[in-house]
């Protein structure tokens, strides 16, 4: 495939989703990492897309009718600074001795790492987080059982009855954020999120600012159920205004780049 064909394919991809990672594009086109970096640079210089950490993003206002969930192992290494800042901010909300639920996903994984040695009991459906806490943490750990959904690394059993506990807080991420609330692409994730919300006193949403450009098809959680949303300082003025208009209490975590 020629350079111009790759550029056309990438541009088309970014009309369907807000972000494509460099690694994903390298595998898609079967070219070197250096070639993809040059492609990204040229698309950015031409004003056709925006070069971002880990890959390339659609310009604000571009058409994005759907979003695709990346595998956890790949998504984990995207926007690390933003996710780490969000995790530190979320850690301030955790009360010692409490029971908290931590959902799957890469931002919640960073949060789980941050509170691994706190005096808390953690319930999670995330295989990667459970593995990390088992090996490196001192907190009490309970893992939700069920079928493994490999790409997000999440366990879920749709046939299971209700859990017999009530949590102080449910920390949850999302594939996207729209004007109505949190958005997801998989109906089982939507169901699990709502199940856990029913078992929690507070619902704390952890999403990096890229997620405001994603538009998955399913509403997972309306803003009316959200206690607090934490994002990073890449949040646009437009998205901040949208959150204010929806009455959402939110915190902007400062990254090193944003603080400089």
From TrEMBL:
- Where do the HTH deoR-type domain residues begin and end? 3-58
Isomerase recorded as keyword: no
Question: Which InterPro entries has this protein been placed in?
Answer: Carb_Metab_HTH_regulators, DeoR-like_C, DeoR_HTH, NagB/RpiA_transferase-like, Tscrpt_reg_HTH_DeoR_CS, WH-like_DNA-bd_sf, WH_DNA-bd_sf
The UniProt GO MF terms for this protein read: DNA binding; DNA-binding transcription factor activity
Pfam families from the UniProt entry: DeoRC (PF00455), HTH_DeoR (PF08220)
What is the superkingdom listed in this entry's lineage? Bacteria
| Keywords associated with the record | DNA-binding, Plasmid, Transcription, Transcription regulation
Has UniProt tagged this entry with the keyword Transcription? yes
Q: What is this protein called?
A: HTH-type transcriptional regulator UlaR
The lineage is: Bacteria, Pseudomonadati, Pseudomonadota, Alphaproteobacteria, Rhodobacterales
